[in-house]
């Protein structure tokens, strides 16, 4: 069975974006060492339109072959004129109002957790949950793994990792890696 991994950038106080959801400021921590890590371990998490200028189109998917993102995350690509931001993967967008602007993008307008459950039963690599506190909240029971890229800054307020009510959901630390730029990548598995 495939697993759903929430692979997310966050401040050290746990926010994935400012109050409006903006998160471009995290890219200042993508130096050569960190980019090498992404290329070696998670190349498919780099959007297609970002891979091409870096000459990384040849990299094969290692962990994920499917990506799901929320409407607000997908809107960032649309604003940049990109309708298929992860063309190297199967793409799903959770939205009750959007019609797909690209045949390569499946819009999930119904029960997104049920759709993820169907995908997890298929053969293949993992499923990459690409941002969105509301989407992450809807999928919290389906999330098998958290990969949190923590950056050395405090936002004070903003968009949380999960837009959920108070509840305990336990995970266990599986690995961590620190970088010279102060970033730390921690991987957690769901505690069973």
Automatic annotation (TrEMBL):
InterPro entries associated with the record: DHFR-like_dom_sf (IPR024072), RibDG_C (IPR002734), Riboflavin_Biosynth_HTPR (IPR050765)
Domain Bacterial bifunctional deaminase-reductase C-terminal: 3-185
Pfam families in the cross-refs: RibD_C (PF01872)
Any single biological process term in GO: riboflavin biosynthetic process
GO molecular function: 5-amino-6-(5-phosphoribosylamino)uracil reductase activity
PANTHER family documented for this protein: 2,5-DIAMINO-6-RIBOSYLAMINO-4(3H)-PYRIMIDINONE 5'-PHOSPHATE REDUCTASE, DIHYDROFOLATE REDUCTASE FAMILY PROTEIN (AFU_ORTHOLOGUE AFUA_8G06820)
Protein name: Deaminase
